[in-house]
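Progress report, Aim 2. The chain analyzed during this reporting quarter is listed below.
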Amino acid sequence: MNPKLKSMKKVINVDKEILGGTPVFMKTRVPIKNLFDYIEEGETISEFLEDFPSVKKEQVDAVLKMSHQLLMN
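Predicted structure tokens for the chain:
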């Protein structure tokens, strides 16, 4: 398996039983899209983390890093 995909599996969960299969942060019900919505609206990562305390900063960092890597390839 591609190492990038393997690391995504540790951070992102897609399960049809959780929000109909919407990608969420692992072990939460917080959609990944919410992070990008916050960024798009000019909110900070700190504000996102305050509003979604079940998400860890390490998870956010990993999603942003993966997104960057995917865009650069």
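Residues 3 and 9 are 10 Å apart (CA to CA). DSSP finds four helices and two strands in the chain. These observations will guide the mutagenesis work planned for the next reporting period.
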